[in-house]
From TrEMBL, chains A, B:
InterPro entries: cNMP-bd_dom (IPR000595), cNMP-bd_dom_sf (IPR018490), RmlC-like_jellyroll (IPR014710). This is Crp/Fnr family transcriptional regulator. It comes from the Bacteria. Gene3D superfamilies: Jelly Rolls (2.60.120.10). Residues 13-112 form the Cyclic nucleotide-binding domain. Coiled coil: none annotated. Signal peptide: none annotated.
Length: 187, 187
DNA sequence: CTTATTTTTTATCATTTGTAAAATTTTTAC
DNA sequence: GTAAAAATTTTACAAATGATAAAAAATAAG
């Protein structure tokens, strides 16, 4: 997905504003396995995914919790770094080799203060992500593990092809063994 | 909490912008039990809590899931109405009689397009809420029911005094019976 | 103050989910 | 192509949580 489409997907910017935003964006490629963000580090990088898929995960003493997948067109940031300039709570790992557009929160903040369209673009981005996470929090609680898996199959079957089941399991809020059990029940 | 403090708590606005924002805000009082928002309705209202406490909850066939509490200084909106002008997924109910400041998303959207400071204020609001929800989603998954309850006691003991345990239980992602069991184990 | 209503606790049992370990399958690297 | 590593499934068992019903406690209403 090209950068114009990614930008406009959040909020359609006037030509001039989009050009200003794009002036700060460059392209970069990383291999599978690369970590874009590391837990407990501050990073003001911002990426947009041209091709590929990534996951954000938090670490626990004996586990990893994948709480977000990013695909073509998605924006990748370390949320707490981006919002508060504080240490992030997540690692973000490439699950495939990725072509990325990149920019920096520093530059973006400057644009937020100079260009009202870009400020509203940033607002819309956060608002849309907010609705998604809130819906997931609610959904997680009112559905059984089986229902959550079925829902994923029907809304995003392609994800199962691209991402290993261990990551899917924690994304759905269950263990890999539980997910495997559920899958065998459905056969 | 007065309206200036509430506004500045999100993002400190220049005097002029704050006055523009305030020009659209009025005060209103509702009794305990009043519903500010109803599930499956579009409402462009926006409230700020001067005094009192509210809860947002989703309905399931045989249950209610409280996923947010709002207190003095918090902003109360129906997220999907606010962001997409679509039917909301939540009810929001006053748990105490509340003094509220109110305005309308229509007015606010106009200000977002006219005043860059207010646009950035709206951006900051969404970003901060986003970090909170994302942290809750992760926390929910990496802690046991007992740990989640202990955490609440230590971070917000006052909440237990103001809100009935049934609501706390679903906020923590467990049944009321589970919460009661956990509480008795701690005695 | 007394009664009615709501909330919370307690108890029992069923179910779901997790843990651990082994077996199997798939993927990766040489 | 083969060996090694990683991922997934399977099994058995344990632990946590949920469902239901009833008792107790707290709150609200008259």
């Amino acid at each position: 997905m090209d950068i114009d489409a990614i930008i406009d997907n959040v909020y359609v910017l006037p030509e001039k504003s989009r050009e200003r935003l794009k002036a700060n964006i460059s392209e970069i490629t990383y291999p599978r396995g690369h970590l874009l963000f590391k837990v407990n580090k501050i990073s003001s990088r911002i990426y947009f995914i041209k091709t590929g898929i990534v996951r954000a995960y938090a670490e626990t003493p004996d586990n990893e919790i994948t709480f977000w997948f990013g695909k073509e067109g998605d924006t990748v940031i370390s949320m707490k770094s981006y919002v508060y300039d504080q240490k992030g709570y997540e690692n973000i790992e490439l699950l495939e080799p990725c072509e990325l557009y990149q920019t920096d929160a520093e530059d973006l903040r400057k644009l937020f203060n100079e260009d009202i369209h870009i400020a509203n673009w940033g607002r819309k981005f956060a608002e849309q992500e907010l609705v998604k996470v809130e819906e997931r929090l609610i959904f997680r609680q009112c559905r059984t593990a089986m229902e959550r898996y079925k829902e994923l199959i029907s809304t995003d079957p392609a994800l199962l092809q691209r991402v290993q089941l261990g990551h899917i399991a924690s994304y759905l809020g269950m263990t890999q063994v539980s997910l495997s059990r559920i899958r065998s029940e459905l056969k």
